[in-house]
Amino acid sequence: MKGESAKSKKRVLVTGAGRGIGRAIALALVQEGYLVSGCARTRSELEETAALSQNQIRTAQIDVSQPGQVEQWIAKETSSANDPWGLVTAAGIHGAIGPFLDTQWEEWKSATEVNLYGTAIAVQSFARELVRRKTPGRIVLLSGGGATRAIENMTAYCASKSAVVRFGETMAEELRPFGISVNSIAPGAVNTALTQTIVQAGPEKSGKALYESALKQTRGPGVPVDKAASLVSYLMSEVSAPVSGRLIAAVWDDWAHLHENKTILESSDYYKLRRHIPPDEAVK
Q: Per-residue pLDDT tens for 160-176?
């Protein structure tokens, strides 16, 4: 098929490809016919990812919070004759869990270093390469529930993930003239190692409501990880070009048809982070 042939020449880079949602996305993109490069901090996890892809995923041990490592990796993976096309920033951590007043600063800021700085470093390096080549592309950022609602005892996660979404909205505007789309996705309540950290922290640190919710989630199947992977595949496609600067929920949004509503999207704040202003009579 012509479309499959075109895909096979496009390379997509995935951070956090060693486990969980990042691994599922990397494997799904391979199945879609893309050339995939994945990075993570843990070598053993990367080796498992590569094996699951029958060694079709090219892997590298990288700490996304270290600019030099990220820049070298992206330069290497985009230097081949194959066209660089997409970036998925799936590397992320919960960071400090517990009341902010009882949290050590170094532990708290680690979430910002991985979730926000790690995302920004990768986006800057990758987008620079696309602009240099004068080629279009796709960038997908991993958000989460902490971006759109306050979660008690998870200030580091909520603050960093909210920043990721607004960063994505801003980059969408800056990169629009170059034909590069930037979107954030919320994968839903997927059972991952991050969910286990909430349970392991216990109700004293996580808070009773969050702990019980996470515990209940781990006892069930959770949201299938392929929901997020399918959404990423859609956002990597040629047809999704009109969709940019949005926060899209893999589970709840009818995302498969977003590109059909280009005029509505361009004239609205749908699927964006915004402040709701009440009518005058509601605040008198």
A: 999 999 999 999 999 99
